[in-house]
Amino acid sequence: MKKQFKMSLFILMASISFTAIAQDKSDWKNGVPEGCTTITAGKMATIDGSVITSHTDDSHRTRAWMEVAPAQKHEKGSKFELFERSAYDSLAMPTYQHKKIGEIDQIEKTYQFLNTAYPCINEKQLAIGESTFGGHEELFSTECLIDCQRLQQLMLERCSSAREAIGLADDLLKKYGWRDYGECLTIADKKEVWHFEVVGPGKGKVGAVWVAQRVPDNHISVNANASTIKEINLEDTNNFMASENIFDVAKENGWWKEGETFRWNYAYAPESRLSIASRRREWRVLSMLAPSLQLDANDKDYPFSVKPDEKVTMDKLVEIFKDYYEGTPYNFVKNIKQADKDGNEVISPFANPFMPYDMNKLFGVNGGWDELGERTIARWYTMYATIIQCRDWLPDEVGGIVWLAQDNVATSIYIPVYAGTTDLAESYKVKARRLGYSRTSAWWAFNRLGTLSAQRWGDMRHDIDKVFVPLQKSYFEEQAKIDEQFMSLSKKKRVEFLTQRSIQLGNEVVEKAWEIGDGLWTKYDEKF
């Protein structure tokens, strides 16, 4: 009995120890990561010549607040601190805690950057999106120090181009190591956009294994929590880059043999290609931008990138990120029906694609994601989303635009935050999930609106669109005038002008979100 107790205690302690040191998986579902979607576009694929990257931060655990981190001069001997993220449930709502695990030398001067949960743009129009794809469990190493969020910050603080950022990652990860699971960073600058996929070096080792592929200038691409880089040609340095150990690690682990065709995704993240949650989103994005390809929604592999049928607009990207497969066989609430006033069978106004998972059981919902339904592009647990334009014909301050939305983008609106913006509206800086529900928070304004509208989605969404769709269109159309106005100002006044616009529109949309939500309570009283 004593022996049994000791063994049980050992197993328990080992389990606790592993949990404490392994990278957190709180956002994973059914054993796979499914947290973010990123779409990219080369400069010849967009209507105005912008290079585009994007990101939906699909995790209500990540932080709701954001701020502009200023450019800084650091004293000799200064350090950049490194942290490990883990789930933390002792505050008002589930969130993350960040425990310091090390530090590296800081450089003398760092660039200004927009400090979202995953830092996304700097003052030089270097921009980053992100999507986790997992990869082989045995590649994760607790000997390493740099995780995804810290690497993005380091890139933005220190680099001015995508290629420079990838080179920096190679240098830092060789020395300090990748302490995370497989990630895809979509790194854009004023000229080009790259997908950078990285995994750990293996248990007990320091380093990383990575590959990068450039999206052709006339193409678009997507990453939706699955590795998408396949065959590579490292002699083509204009389009591919990789770590020195890319073939050796695959060969040592038996994931690839000499003489076989080397496919990065099947060597380093084969499980990710099995995920319908990922593949369905890939299909939908590519099909909405290049319907002429007639891609099969049930294929296992899609092209890394495709030429869109038409030049990509901001309106189209907003439409894609709001998508939940309505009008396709994969709208998983399509069978929740009732008779309308004329006796015709229609989808119930109460059917919504943002139901808590427990409600799927109530309605017998099943789909490509099994009892979870379908993993749609728009999600109720998105914390924030970005669509970033990098424009080389304008000064960096106004050329780089982060179109920033809060919470579920299906019920939200994007405001411009410029590479030169030095501050945000106060409500964007409130630590909302740490504090709980608050009328002072931008995130809560949109979270409340999205949650409320889901209760009678078939009707309420139209009330939201009636306000936000024309307002969004006006923001996009006004940008050309903002560019002109910026160029007419003295250099002293330019940054203040951009900052005031970001703050003004931030305040405006938050006020609208509260106003629409209050109106829904009144209009639909006793109807939900």
UniProtKB/TrEMBL annotation:
Its EC number is 3.4.-.-. InterPro entries: Peptidase_C69 (IPR005322). Keywords: Dipeptidase, Hydrolase, Protease, Signal. GO terms for molecular function: cysteine-type exopeptidase activity; dipeptidase activity. The keyword Signal applies. Pfam families: Peptidase_C69 (PF03577). Residues 1-22 form the signal peptide. It is an enzyme of class 3 (hydrolase). GO terms for biological process: proteolysis. It catalyses: an L-aminoacyl-L-amino acid + H2O = 2 an L-alpha-amino acid. The keyword Protease applies. Belongs to the peptidase C69 family. This is Dipeptidase.
